[in-house]
Amino acid sequence: MGMQSIEFYMSQIQDILTYNGNELDIQINYGMLLLSILCWCFTVLRVFNTIPDFCFFTISCLYITFTIQIGVCLLAHQVGISLVWCFMVGFAYRMWIHSPSDPVLSNRLLVLATFGSALWANFYYFRTLPIITTIAHLIATWVGYEVNKIWIKTHQQREERQKAAQ
Q: Which DSSP letter does residue 20 get?
């Protein structure tokens, strides 16, 4: 097996990110990505002291999850970005249920709409695609949830060290 050209891999990545041109999958998954980013902002932002810290953290998470998503798709000969939004929904879900309630009704409605949409999208793909897709979605959501546990613990320990140092 010889080395593939950069053009080959760029073509594969284009297919991954565009669902091989399947417009319904594009609409569902990029819509879910947008909702999950908005939900992420409303649930995660309040933990950060500064906007730059929040932006760095968010961009880092997106970079890592997109890299993993593309790697998985290249290895498994699949397409899509659903692991990214599933991860973000899992992370934001744990943040939402383990933090003080947001008093702003519109924030709560956005979070509930995102979670409801994620359930709908996963049910749709459970009914229309092989079960491995649903398993991958559940694993990505669980990983986001578990990464949040680790991140919160690390964040709290850092804050405690900073307070002790003052």
A: G
Helix locations, 18-104, DSSP H: 23-44, 51-76, 82-97
Mean pLDDT on 129-156 = 94
- Residue tagged 């997106």 (tokens): 62
Tokens encoding 135? 């398993």
Contact (Cβ atoms closer than 8 angstroms) between residue 77 and residue 149: no
Residue 56 pLDDT more than 80? yes
Contact 35, 143 (CB under 8 A): no
C-alpha dihedral, 57 to 63 to 64 to 67, nearest 10°: 180
Do the beta carbons of residue 89 and residue 39 sit within 8 Å? Answer: yes
In a 3-state reduction of DSSP, which class is residue 74? helix
Q: Which of 91, 99, 76 is nearest to 150 (CA)?
A: 91
CA atoms of 152 and 92, how far apart (whole Å): 12
List C-alpha distances in Å: 124 to 85, 118, 130. Answer: 15, 10, 11
Tokens of 36: 């999950």
pTM of the predicted protein model: 0.90
